[in-house]
Amino acid sequence: MGLTHQSCGSGVNREIFQRGMVPGAAYVIALAGNPNTGKSTLFNALTGLNQHTGNWPGKTVLRAEGKFIFQGRVYNLIDLPGTYSLLAHSAEEQVARDYLCFGKPDATIVVVDATCLERNLNLVLQVLEITAKVVVCVNLMDEAKRKNIEINIESLSAELGVPVVAATAREGAGLAALQQAVAGIADGTVKTSPYIVKYDEAIEHCIRKLEPKLKELVGEQFNSRWLALRLLDGDETVIRSLKKWLAEGTRVRAAAGGEILA
Ligand SMILES: Nc1nc2c(ncn2[C@@H]2O[C@H](COP(=O)(O)OP(=O)(O)O)[C@@H](O)[C@H]2O)c(=O)[nH]1
Ligand SMILES: [Mg+2]
Predict the structure, then answer these.
(1) Out of 11, 36, 105, 261, which residue is the most buried by the measure of CB atoms under 10 Å away?
(2) Same domain as 110, residue 225
(3) Residue 44: which CATH number?
(4) Residue 21: per-residue pLDDT
(5) 49, part of any domain
(6) Burial of 187 (0-12, 13-18, 19+ CB in 10 A)
(7) Among the three residues 186, 214, 234, which one is the final residue of a domain in this structure?
(8) Cα of 32 from ligand 2 centre, angstroms
(9) 71 — phi, psi (to 5°)?
(10) Residue limits of the FeoB-type G domain (predicted)?
(11) Is the pLDDT of residue 9 over 60?
């Protein structure tokens, strides 16, 4: 799997759908979470000095990228902007959301604050609507302990349908278990069955009508249920990104002398 600029296409495609820039990386892993959940602390603990920062193309939003090696494989870690949701109300939310959908990371770590789990789970459910390849990292476990908050990691994992790992990033606790869980998701040996939010029947009815048409357009590339929801939302930013992706695909196929889709 190539992870260089070249292999990710060019022009518009490279701008918004760039997966990662670490040469020779086996997998690309996204790091998502609410602000102040210890995302950067975790990113630093995992990548050490193997990182560099820049801006997301076309945005004044910081892009931090780095690598770690686990069991002989190189993992390219992308620190997404901290967000409370993925509704694209801000540049940060749009960057995080476009990356999760169009960047197609091999796994996504969602870092949550153990001391205010409920608020943080909102983002977890939104990420699970986009991708099933998720590991939830319940961070700040030391703070939770101090506040006598107990978290049943196993039952949380059973409810969410994805691996959940407890961590205290500041002390480096839980990192090995997190890496192990990420490896399982990235290489496909661990399958998930994510909790999916069900909407009112009227909305579900529209999704059922839209989803097959979207599948015709994008195949299995993207989560067509999520795209259908965004179209029902009238979400212009997703529609624009999707158009760019479709246009770029047509351009690349044309350049390769392949079949051009109408
Ligand atoms: N007690 C405790 N503090 C942490 C932990 N992880 C991060 N922090 C602290 O939480 C604050 C926010 O961390 P940061 O990594 O900047 O969060 P981000 O906004 O999600 O990137 C900083 O003061 C960190 O030192 C942890 O596991 N335990
Ligand atoms: Mg940060």
Answers:
(1) 105
(2) no
(3) 3.40.50.300
(4) 78
(5) yes
(6) middle
(7) 186
(8) 10
(9) 50, 45
(10) 26-188
(11) no
Q: What is d(CA 16, CA 58) in angstroms, rounded to the nearest whole number?
A: 9
The 3-class SS string of 25-52 reads CCEEEEEEECCCCCHHHHHHHHHCCCEE
**Cα 76 from Cα 23, distance rounded (Å):** 9
Identify the residue whose C-alpha is closest to ligand 1 atom 9: 38
**Number of folded domains in the chain?**
2
Residue nearest to atom 5 of ligand 1 (CA): 170
Residue 192 forms part of a structural domain: no
List, for residues 113-149, the tens digit of each pLDDT value: 999 999 999 999 999 999 999 999 999 999 999 999 9
The pair of three-digit structure tokens given for residue 183, joined into one six-digit string: 């490896």
Is residue 153 situated within a structural domain? yes
Whether 255 has a pLDDT exceeding 90, the answer reads no
Residue 170 Cβ contacting ligand 1 at under 6 Å: yes
Tell me, yes or no, whether 238 and 166 share the same domain: no
Tell me, yes or no, whether 181 and 217 share the same domain: no
Q: Tell me which of 109, 139, 151, 170 to substitute to probe ligand 1's pocket, judged by most ligand atoms within 8 Å of the beta carbon.
A: 170
| Domain ranges, residue 226 | 201-255
Please give the pLDDT value at position 40: 94
* Cα 54 to ligand 2 centre (Å): 14
**CA of 210 relative to ligand 2 center, distance in Å:** 37
